[in-house]
Amino acid sequence: MKQKQLNVIETKAREWLLDRGVKVQDIAELTYHLQRSYFPHLTIEDCIRHVEKVLSKREVQNGILTGIQLDRLTEKGLLDEPLQSMLKKDEGLYGIDEVVALSILNVYGSIGLTNYGYIDKQKPGILSRLNDKSTGDCHTFLDDIVGAIAAAAASRLAHNSDVTPTS
Amino acid sequence: MKQKQLNVIETKAREWLLDRGVKVQDIAELTYHLQRSYFPHLTIEDCIRHVEKVLSKREVQNGILTGIQLDRLTEKGLLDEPLQSMLKKDEGLYGIDEVVALSILNVYGSIGLTNYGYIDKQKPGILSRLNDKSTGDCHTFLDDIVGAIAAAAASRLAHNSDVTPTS
Amino acid sequence: MKQKQLNVIETKAREWLLDRGVKVQDIAELTYHLQRSYFPHLTIEDCIRHVEKVLSKREVQNGILTGIQLDRLTEKGLLDEPLQSMLKKDEGLYGIDEVVALSILNVYGSIGLTNYGYIDKQKPGILSRLNDKSTGDCHTFLDDIVGAIAAAAASRLAHNSDVTPTS
Amino acid sequence: MKQKQLNVIETKAREWLLDRGVKVQDIAELTYHLQRSYFPHLTIEDCIRHVEKVLSKREVQNGILTGIQLDRLTEKGLLDEPLQSMLKKDEGLYGIDEVVALSILNVYGSIGLTNYGYIDKQKPGILSRLNDKSTGDCHTFLDDIVGAIAAAAASRLAHNSDVTPTS
User: Per UniProt, which keywords does this protein have (chains A, B, C, D) (predicted)?
Assistant: First the structure.
């Protein structure tokens, strides 16, 4: 019964990501971007495998469901003020999105912190689209969550590799 | 202009707490409960003063607004499944409430961790009422947030005191 | 080669724990103490199995080695002032021991926070002996690390169980 | 008496930084580098003022003293194996340095995470020198600590500013 419940949660978290336009492949490309210089034989398939494992963690699923829920409610204008405006404009002093991202990162330890911060600033690949405010979509939480999953997958890859890059 | 905006956010965070039945005095009593054995001359007024300072921090206000918003939406049944059920029953494997609590605690450093965990388990004072599921109210986030504010105020008190208890 | 290196680190972390008087059984008893009321069929052997899994995580090994190293150097008086005195007396405003404990806890998510704080305050079993200052030993880091491993094992147990306690 | 004790700790933390070749000005330049595009009228003097405030926080001082102590002991070869080798080569899977950095960052909330990760990857200014392994010096902890202080100062600046950049 528990197993079934967990599967529902993982299935839903993956559906919600897809529904917001984020494919496993998109996240894996961020991980590849982060790690290819350290691991010359790295393939996108390796990265996909690590992203899949990150997505199987309950803390990660909790973060995905909570963050996307808040993004959706923001788009529909269903939050109360002043929260509605803060999330709508992704206000710089609002940090609960980073807090949720950190809870995802921490599952694979602190070594992902640098990678997370780096791609959050550089906005490669899917992160660029998620930050495009011109679409009318709200991805205040999702962009941080996607960056955190990609950085967590990079940490997992480093933990399971034969090569240990210096930090 | 910025000052005005900050004041709106602090005012709203305090209003939302009151609206959910949590007075500054209630939180100060938790802090008093945590610290009176270390500081024999401690008064409730001292604790109120420290709780007020904790409430003036923007990170704390962000946590209050986000957590109470999610509790309210849960009560109204406005969240999507499976999140609605997870928050409704305060599910044990859902930890985003603790994640938000930790972001409040961290503003006054790691020394508040023990106090937070202790009152979250013991549920003294207002925390007992917030955990009473028989009322039909949902305080999945709020009980953790109130415990974290009380523990953060205890840390602030220790940082500003003449007496340094051993940890 | 990597596998071999990891094994050395895990082996050493376990040796250092034993050398400081902490057996896997001691930690498992803390986990049992935390969880037996939620899981009536729980055995010490179950708890040992979860503690073993926690000890296999690299972040946990890093925390054990770093914390015990600092405790040892403190006992030998080899740290520079004012750090030597701060660690010697386990000063209340020094929180790096809790910071390291948190990095261990986070590997199994935020749901262990409450359990960690609770046993850190209550000091059952081995934690009572580690906090006995009359022995001349210094366990400023180790007591927090042992509590965090026990709480992480309790989280792991909850994640892998058929029964989901409310948080 | 407490006031005096705190001053000793702050004074020592500042002395240790200087002794390791890190001036307040060096850290302020990192903060300036991070924030100048958001705040066109920003001066180095503004940044120095915020770095000074960050250095006045006890958690930050604890992190500085603990990290530099471990770096010094590593240089002298006084740590036990395998920790000595892990810190000597700044091993990629050792994350306690990032854990300590995070405890510094968290004092000013989660909004500094991105800035920390960014400069830790880019290594501008003083961070480039601290990462130069050819000198024989060991700065495994110090480089992360300096980056975290600079990012915390950037967060403090944003919290106290009239202009709110989007995150």
Answer: Hydrolase
Looking at the partner chain, which of A90, A99, A117 has a beta carbon nearest the beta carbon of D117? A117
Using alpha carbons, select from D137, D83, D59 the residue that is nearest to residue C73. D83
Domain positions in chain B are: 2-159
CA angle D105–D111–D114, rounded 5-degree value: 85
Q: Which of residues 21-40 of B touch D (CB under 8 A)?
A: none
Pairwise CB contact (< 8 Å): B80 & A103: no
Interface ipTM: 0.92
- Average pLDDT of A18-39? 96
Longest dimension (CA), chain D: 51
* Right CATH for C2-159 from 1.10.3760.10, 3.30.365.10, 3.90.550.10, 3.30.70.3490: 1.10.3760.10
Q: How far apart are CA D143 and CA D126, in angstroms?
A: 9
CA distance C102 to C152: 10
Reported as a single tens digit per residue, the pLDDT across D71-127 is 999 999 999 999 999 999 999 999 999 999 999 999 998 889 999 999 999 999 999
Q: Does any CB of chain D come closer than 8 Å to the CB of residue C73?
A: yes
